[in-house]
Amino acid sequence: MTTERIAENVKFAYWVPNVSGGLVTSTIEQRTDWNYEYNVKLARTAENNGFEYALSQVRYEASYGAEFQHESISFSLALLLATERLKLIAAVHPGLWQPGVLAKLGATADHLSGGRFAVNVVSGWFKDEFTHLGEPWLEHDERYRRTAEFLQVLRKIWTEDEVDFRGDFYRIHDFTLKPKPLNTPQRPNPEIFQGGNSTAARRNGGRYADWYFSNGKDFDGVTEQLVEVRDHARDANREVKFGLNGFIIARDTEREAKEVLREIVAKADKPAVDGFRAAVQQAGASTADKRGMWADSTYEDLVQYNDGFRTQLIGTPEQIAERISAYRRRGVDLILGGFLHFQEEIEYFGTRVLPLVREIEAAERDSIAPPFQASA
Fold it and tell me: Positive or negative CA dihedral for 253, 46, 184, 80?
């Protein structure tokens, strides 16, 4: 089963390790680091191995294995200035950011980087980050109503003059941003990503974002989300692209890859996983239809805190390339990858897996017969 639009080539992004603890909540060795020097080297490695995007995480204080955190916007700008082609997606929380201030910062970052700045708008999953800063914690669907306004205001300020917006959460009066972000035919404005799995998140993604980010999903889960998100986009006379999170374990043999997964789970930091599970499943289950993020995640799923094992990108290069291609045929435009040992595994992915994905895509294009033309 496919959606009505399939990308010619799937794009690749990676999670920036700008928080400590790596991408799995486990005591297994993770050869990665949250410091700037490591991340500069990693970003350059990624852009030289076929990755077009990187996503900076957002956490404001220690939680569930992430004792230290670099702020996402400033860290993204630093990596933009250290690279040449990589696009940085900075995660932000409405309620902790004012959209006009973010629009101003984003326009500056866009100019400094030659048009490579993007944002991922996250409606908030960790109550303590808001309450510890003295900000109100809104009910789930109210957070997404605020995000809907945030997305609209951000785009208006980036594209219009004398912006006027009267919402329940934001009031903008005759505001003009100068300079606007860079505007090119290839990318008119900074790309806006919307994260989440819930009904409200899908609606926001379809109506207001350029991209919708999903937690890890199998084929059926991806198709169900894609259909709904693109229905919302169609109703709004627009188009949205789809990004999917997946934790990638590529090894020379399937047995090696599965043994790595087994060890990750066996060495899970149980108190941290249990604490994270209690926090996020309450948030997911708080939606009226129980379709929020993490609402049905198992303990094993949450050892990778964005359900990345569910996407099943675990095996040989050939197996992973085939599965990525199958996701593309269902409508996925981008794979957001997490890794155990970032530096060497992104290199391995770029040299062993990504070329196979491109070969599959090229073979599929070649298999489509050209239209019949009568001879003169």
Answer: positive
- Strand boundaries in 162-304, DSSP class E: 163-166, 171-175, 191-195, 211-214, 241-250
Mean pLDDT of the chain: 92
Q: Distance between CA 53 and CA 4 in Å, rounded?
A: 24
pTM over 0.85: yes
- pLDDT for the residue 289: 56
Region of 114 (left: φ > 0; alpha: ψ -120 to 50; beta: rest) is: left
Residue 268: phi and psi, rounded to 5, are -60, 140
* For the chain, percent of residues with pLDDT exceeding 90: 80
Rounded Cα distance, 10 and 52, in Å:
10
Please, which residues have CB within 8 angstroms of residue 297's CB and are 6 or more apart in sequence?
277, 280, 281, 284, 307
363 in Cβ contact with 356 (< 8 Å): no
- What domains sit in the chain, N to C, each tagged with a CATH number? 11-364 (3.20.20.30)
- The answer to whether residue 238 scores a pLDDT higher than 70 is yes
